[in-house]
TrEMBL record:
Residues 5-311 form the NAD(P)-binding domain. GO terms for molecular function: GDP-mannose 4,6-dehydratase activity. It comes from Paenibacillus anseongense. It catalyses: GDP-alpha-D-mannose = GDP-4-dehydro-alpha-D-rhamnose + H2O. Coiled coil: none annotated. This is GDP-mannose 4,6-dehydratase. Its EC number is 4.2.1.47. The lineage of its organism: Bacteria, Bacillati, Bacillota, Bacilli, Bacillales. Gene3D superfamilies: NAD(P)-binding Rossmann-like Domain, UDP-galactose 4-epimerase, domain 1. It comes from the Bacteria.
Length: 323
């Protein structure tokens, strides 16, 4: 039986990846940060909280990562843990650098010191492209991050490439574009919208305050994207891959899809609030998943409309339950 260690197992992607690996027969270990409140709601939502072995630790604490690797003795490590909210990265730039940037080095060092044959996946991001100069971003597009988060992720990306080249570690970097689901954190714009749509529809909220709704994103479904992570580690050679849908949509049009689904007009409810504008914005992202299709035989299965409908439906159920 193969075993895998997932950092960030309590996050959106961690939960879906754990489910995917369990279905493939893996023994799944999760590296979990100590918090004062329970963070396992996503694992519970998927019904897998008793199927995974959780090991406490923190990405900024090398010894705890080493301990986790010694306990799990994994063939594969998926590093999904991060301070992942772009907005917060301006408020906590140093914490973001320590977790999202140097945290990657901690995991790589633990692998190098304990067992350099362990395969490593790094959760890189389209935010590294930032102020892009190419209409469609691929593995060859130059990087120009626009937030402390993007800068920290760029460090994580390059240190993964460097450990591959320096120490022959099987390290893959998945450059994933935005991916969402009913398990998405409420602070991210899609979930903020679908939760608000459910509340407005059920008479619990009147307006939805948003920032830059002209920003464009290439949005896919998290359930599809974790499969690409796994595929990368099954290749003969380690490499980096863009994972995206190849379509981009404005936040405005994503809102339209969500409100229209429940028979509402977004213009009657969305209020622009400068509080949600960012000091530096990534105006447009559009990924080219051609390499992933060719080498990993990976393609997204869920389009944006179906994804947003799935999220609104889940939020309607959730909000109804609250009352
Ligand atoms: P989430 O924010 O949902 O999950 C982040 C996870 O990291 C949580 O489990 C969190 O734990 C954990 N974590 C945070 N800080 C620490 C720490 N110091 N030590 C240990 N664990 C920690 O992110 P997603 O699931 O959406 O994303 C997964 C990864 O992919 C992240 O690295 C993200 O930056 C990256 N990414 C995401 C994309 C997306 O669109 N979703 C696109 C591209 C990259 P807790 O629950 O306790 O807070
Ligand atoms: P992003 O996702 O920054 O792309 O990072 P987010 O959903 O936060 O923002 C997407 C775009 O929507 C605009 N926007 C708002 N965003 C939020 N959160 N709240 C608002 O009210 C709002 N109004 C407009 C933003 O300005 C932005 O342009 C996500 C994270 O998952 C990262 O970890 C990951 O690396 C990238 O996706 C790819």
């Amino acid at each position: 039986m193969k075993s895998a260690l997932i950092t960030g197992i309590t996050g959106q992607d961690g939960a879906y990846l754990a489910q995917l690996l369990l279905n493939k027969g893996y023994k799944v270990y999760g590296f979990i940060a100590r918090r004062s409140t329970d963070t396992q709601w996503r694992l519970q939502y998927l019904g897998i909280q008793n199927e995974v072995q959780l090991i406490e630790g923190d990405l900024t604490d090398l010894s705890s990562i080493m301990r986790a690797i010694q306990i799990a003795n994994p063939q594969e490590v998926y590093n999904l843990a991060a301070q992942s909210f772009v907005g917060t990265s301006w408020e906590q730039p140093i914490t973001t650098a320590q977790i999202t940037g140097v945290g990657v080095l901690n995991v790589l060092e633990a692998i190098r010191l304990i067992d350099s044959s362990i395969k490593f996946y790094q959760a890189s991001t389209s935010e590294m492209f930032g102020l892009i100069q190419e209409p469609m971003q691929s593995e060859k597009t130059p990087f120009y991050p626009r937030s402390p988060y993007g800068v920290a992720k760029l460090y994580g990306h390059w240190i993964t490439v460097n450990y591959r080249e320096s120490f022959n570690i099987f390290g893959c970097s998945g450059i994933l574009f935005n991916h969402e689901s009913p398990l998405r954190g409420i602070e991210f714009v899609t979930r903020k919208v679908t939760d608000a749509v459910a509340r407005i529809k059920l008479g619990k909220q009147k307006e939805l305050r948003l920032g830059n709704i002209d920003a464009q994103r290439d949005w896919g479904f998290a359930g599809d994207y974790v499969d690409a992570m796994w595929r990368m580690l099954q290749q003969e050679l380690p490499d980096d891959y863009v994972i995206a849908t190849g379509k981009t949509t404005t936040v405005r049009d994503m809102c339209k899809i969500a409100f229209t689904f429940v028979g509402l007009n977004y213009e009657n409810h969305v209020v622009i609030d400068p509080k949600f504008y960012r000091p530096a914005e990534v105006d447009i992202l559009l990924g080219n998943p051609g390499k992933a299709k060719e080498h990993l035989n990976w393609e997204p299965e869920t389009n944006l409309e179906n994804l947003i409908h799935m999220m609104v439906e889940a939020d309607l159920i959730r909000v109804r339950k609250e009352s």
